[in-house]
Structures are given as structure tokens and as C-alpha cells.
Amino acid sequence: MPYVNVKVTRNGVTREIKQKIIADITDSLVKHLDKKPEHIHIVIDEIDEDNWGFAGELTTDYRKRT
User: Fold this and answer.
1) Architecture of the domain made up of 3-65
2) What is the pTM of this model?
3) Which of 11, 21, 37, 49 makes the best surface tag, with the fewest CB within 10 Å?
4) Mind telling me the catalytic residues?
């Protein structure tokens, strides 16, 4: 039973995009691991940009500069 946890920043990720992500990951696991779709669990966590950092800074600060 594969379990996949996808974490993204909360920034315009629509329900439709989430559905496509789930479908793509499911298709990949079916193809490469020979798993049944009904045995695959995918969770998408949306993280506030102020709670996500990299390269020593918050995502909100990085995005303001780019």
C-alpha cells in the first residue's frame, strides 16, 4: 500500500491541479510498481508560505525579491 505525501505552498493550487497531481502520481505507481490504484494513498498538504523556508529565508521573503 503506497502512501505518498506531497507538500506544496498554499499559493494558487486549485482543486483541479490537485486532481491532476493525484492522477499522475497514481498512474506512475501503477506503471512502475505494478500497484492497484485502490491501494494507493496520496495526501497533499498545503503549507503557508510563512511556514516554508529554504536557503535561510522564508518563502514569502524569497518570492518578494523574484
Assistant:
1) 2-Layer Sandwich (3.30)
2) 0.85
3) 37
4) 2
Tens digit of each residue's pLDDT (9 = 90 or more) over 19-52: 999 999 999 999 999 999 999 999 999 999 999 9
Q: Which of 18, 13, 8 is nearest to 45 (CA)?
A: 8
Hey, what amino acid is at 59? T
Instruction: Count the neighbouring beta carbons within 10 Å of the beta carbon of residue 26.
Output: 19
Task: Specify which residues 53 forms β-bridges with.
Answer: 58
What per-residue string of b and e applies to 2-18 under the rule 16 or more CB within 10 Å gives b? eeeeeeebeeeeeeeee
